[in-house]
Write a structure and sequence with these properties.
Layout: H1 9-12, H2 19-38, E1 41-43, E2 48-49, E3 53-60, E4 63-70, H3 79-86, E5 94-98, E6 103-107, H4 119-133, E7 142-143, H5 144-156, H6 165-180, E8 185-187, E9 196-198, E10 204-206, E11 212-214, H7 221-225, H8 235-250, H9 254-276, H10 283-300
Parallel strand pairs: 7-11
Antiparallel strand pairs: 1-3, 2-3, 3-4, 4-6, 5-6, 8-11, 9-10
Helix pairs in contact: 4-8, 5-6, 5-9, 6-9, 8-10, 9-10
Length: 302
């Protein structure tokens, strides 16, 4: 069945990112048509998209579904494995997958996400969801420790004025303890307000996992630095309110969670400097670095 609409311009503009992205967009219409024919799907609405994938509303044997065709990259390789392991418990159901082509057939959820409710209420929802999705991992998932170890190499090469040294020292000091334990759970890796949607089987369901084998305490940071404009003038207090709401709902270890937030915040800073490749940082990069450092500071003030 021929794709009946154009690739959304806001998504297609990513073709300029690299040759690999350009190749992805060249084959995307053909791949969508192949998958809908092979899986006997019918297009059923306008396409949506995220940072790394096109999502097409479809009908599968009369059931409302979503066909996701992702850009193949390391961070997304664990998504089908995580969804399979979760089996719909706290997360969107995976009905079919072709990892080689980056294709997933998923149940269709509602359009409402957690940005639609009070931020602390949303933290309570996510804290409870942690308990559903943090199931025993499998060797098929990437071990988060290997990724973090590589990321910390970039932290060690940060310019001295990039981030206050106390945050770098805390991150590098905590890392050996955080990375010493074997992975205990399937973790989402980027669980924030827009990655939880309304469902029929239960009120809220998780979508779009990166899918790692790791430490559940790694999860909290995105809930702290998203919905940033809602923190108000006293950002530190607002961040800590979210942090404790997540802890109260999840029962996770406070110290490990606090240290992971600092590690992730400092890694954020290093990524922006690596991306700048010696060029001056953009305004957007400086804003993101400020947000990350503010989040790290709030954890030191806990």
């Amino acid at each position: 069945m021929k794709l009946p609409y154009e690739i959304p311009p806001g998504f297609a503009e990513q073709a300029s990112h690299s040759d690999d992205w350009a190749a992805y967009f060249r084959q995307l219409p053909r791949l969508a048509d192949e998958l809908t024919d092979e899986w006997r799907l019918t297009y059923d609405g306008q396409p949506l998209y995220g940072r790394a994938g096109l999502v097409l509303p479809v009908l599968a044997d009369g059931r409302r579904a979503m066909l996701k065709i992702g850009y193949l990259h390391e961070d997304g390789a664990g998504e089908p494995v995580a969804l399979q392991l979760w089996g719909g418990h706290g997360a969107v159901e995976l009905w079919k997958a072709d990892p080689r082509r980056g294709a997933l057939l998923l149940e269709r959820l509602g359009s409402q996400d957690l940005t639609s409710i009070d931020v602390l209420e949303a933290c309570g929802v996510v804290g409870e969801l942690y308990g559903l999705i943090h199931r025993p991992p499998t060797p098929r998932l990437v071990d988060l420790r290997s990724l973090v170890s590589r990321w910390l190499d970039d932290v060690r090469t940060l310019p001295r004025d990039a981030v206050p040294s106390r945050f770098v020292d805390q991150a590098l000091g905590a890392a050996p303890r955080l990375l010493a334990d074997e992975p205990s759970a399937v973790i989402h890796g980027d669980l924030h307000y827009e990655n939880v949607l309304r469902g029929d089987r239960r009120p809220w369901l998780v979508i779009d996992p990166k899918g790692f084998a790791g430490d559940p305490a790694y999860e909290l940071a995105p809930m702290l630095w998203n919905r940033w404009s809602e923190l108000g003038e006293d950002q530190g207090t607002g961040i800590r309110d979210r942090f404790y709401a997540l802890l109260d709902a999840s029962g996770l270890d406070e110290r490990r969670c606090r240290d992971w937030v600092v590690v992730r915040a400092v890694v954020n800073v290093s990524w922006e400097h690596v991306a700048a490749a010696g060029r001056p940082l953009s305004d957007a990069q400086r804003e993101w670095i400020t947000r990350s450092i503010t989040t790290a500071k709030a954890m030191q003030d806990v």
